[in-house]
């Protein structure tokens, strides 16, 4: 299915979307079940020795590896990490079923009333990605918006090959989707016929196997399987994020129910230390929060 993401006629598009949505829903149920089991440990564990971190799939590698490093340094302390999306992270920390909610987006107006404390831990760029064989390597923000709204449907409209554009989007729980919507789409709605996927890795995998596909992922997940395009003449790089030149960028957040205390504060302080900022953050393709003035 993923080898050719094309725009068929209306009936075919609807059929493919329903089939694909069913597969995604089934996968999501499995992930939800597994993560819910992990999150449940927060109620039963000794609060001094164990914390639960839930949320953004973009931030999952940071939280996991930093948690392993933290445990290596303090063997009697554990960090349980899971990823269901930024919205889930915010919801679980507000509900008290996790100690830290990770989010790759800002709080929505309604969430600002929850009394959560925000600790930014890194900068990130959202890269627009295409298949490596796609000759298109430059776009404007307006062109990207037109593609993801469905206004532009063929690569030939941008000077590329005569090939239908296969849209790959994230699910509504995704912080990456929300950030992309705020920065790029504004009030223009997404094309509802796009393939919708629950994770960054899935988006990258689909685009890497579909010559006509386009998606967006965290810069930290870009590899040689896909090609990041320049936006408004700027390539997504750590340097362009620090200077503010790259237009599609965001902060990555740790949210807690009030100012962090106890083990949660110890872990957050560790993530903000040079032991993580100068190693894991940079190796994961993100920009340290201590990377300089913006």
List keywords for this structure.
294 residues, alpha/beta, 2 domains, two-stranded parallel sheet, 12 strands
Commentary on this structure:
The protein is α/β, with parallel strands linked by helices. The protein folds into two domains: 28-123 and 251-288, D-Maltodextrin-Binding Protein, domain 2, CATH 3.40.190.10; 124-243, 3-Layer(aba) Sandwich (D-Maltodextrin-Binding Protein, domain 2), CATH 3.40.190. 39% of the residues lie in helices and 20% in strands. It is built from nine helices and twelve strands. It has helices at residues 10-44, 60-73, 86-95, 141-149, 175-185, 200-209, 238-243, 262-272, 274-283; strands at residues 50-55, 78-83, 100-103, 117-130, 138-139, 166-170, 195-197, 213-218, 227-228, 230-231, 249-256, 287-288. The strands form two sheets. Strands 1, 2, 3, 4, 6, 7, 8, 9, 11 and 12 form a ten-stranded mixed sheet that branches. A two-stranded parallel ribbon has the order 5-10. Mean pLDDT is 85; it is low at 1-46.
Based on helices, strands and strand pairing, what is the structural class?
A: alpha/beta
The helix/strand order is HEHEHEEEHEHEHEEEHEHHE
Return residue spans where pLDDT drops below 50 for at least 5 consecutive residues: 1-46
* Name given to the CATH architecture of the largest domain: 3-Layer(aba) Sandwich
Element layout with pairings:
Elements: H1 10-44, E1 50-55, H2 60-73, E2 78-83, H3 86-95, E3 100-103, E4 117-130, E5 138-139, H4 141-149, E6 166-170, H5 175-185, E7 195-197, H6 200-209, E8 213-218, E9 227-228, E10 230-231, H7 238-243, E11 249-256, H8 262-272, H9 274-283, E12 287-288
Parallel strand pairs: 1-2, 1-3, 5-10, 6-7, 6-8
Antiparallel strand pairs: 3-11, 4-8, 4-9, 4-11, 4-12
